[in-house]
Automatic annotation (TrEMBL):
One matching Pfam family: DUF2382
Segments passing through the bilayer: 12-30, 36-63
Keywords: Membrane, Transmembrane, Transmembrane helix
Organism: Dethiobacter alkaliphilus AHT 1
Residue intervals of the DUF2382 domain: 85-186
Lineage: superkingdom: Bacteria
Transmembrane helix found in the keyword field: yes
InterPro entries: DUF2382, Stress_Response_Assoc
Protein name: DUF2382 domain-containing protein
Length: 194
């Protein structure tokens, strides 16, 4: 595509230059041979040769842009010649590169939670029972001797172990690309020898 637009640009430039020279020379010849022809260009304050050069420049550029570039790219070969025609094709050169997709920060958080636990505690008492009177009434007296008290100690216990490491995995991606390939075409014309 770049080569086609470049050759088209070259055709426009060459056409413009050739058209400008032709217009200039026609203007010079016209002024010397037919001086009355210059009256046609009196509306433009330039000489006839400069005006025709400008017209030739524009016309040459238009003609150059519309010429068919394909006929200039074709090469004629004779059968008698020992020729080697290189045929080329496009091939893909695929590379990969590593890009950073994310940052990872690993740390441990301490979470605080309240727990309510019911713990049974016991105590020892000295019980003294005494019978009073004739009704056999009993009086009871209790004297505390000992009791259990709660001591709270905390200790760290490992619940589990977490492994952190990097692993590499292979995936496949599909790439669609259009490739050009040169193909040799032979146009044979038979000569009628009658």
């Amino acid at each position: 595509m770049v080569q086609n637009s470049l050759s088209r640009t070259m055709r426009i430039i060459v056409g413009a230059i050739v058209g400008a020279f032709l217009g200039f020379f026609i203007g010079l010849i016209g002024e010397s041979i037919l001086p009355g022809l210059g009256l046609l260009f009196t509306a433009i304050p330039l000489s006839m040769s400069i005006t025709l050069s400008a017209i030739g420049l524009v016309m040459g550029a238009v003609i150059g842009s519309n010429t068919d570039a394909r006929r200039y790219n074709e090469v004629e070969y004779k059968v008698e010649d020992d020729i080697k025609i290189p045929l080329r094709e496009e091939q893909l050169d695929i590379e990969t590169h590593r890009v950073k997709t994310s940052d990872v920060d690993i740390h441990k958080d301490v979470i605080t939670e309240e727990k309510t636990i019911t713990v049974p505690v016991s105590r020892e008492e000295l019980v003294v029972e005494k019978s009073v009177g004739d009704n056999e009434k009993t009086e009871t007296m209790r004297i505390p001797l000992s009791e259990e008290r709660i001591d709270v100690n905390k200790e760290n216990v490992q619940l589990n172990e977490v492994s952190v490491y990097k692993a590499e995995f292979q995936d496949t991606e599909t790439i669609d690309e259009t490739l050009k390939k040169e193909k040799l075409e032979i146009d044979a014309e038979s000569e009628d020898k009658s």
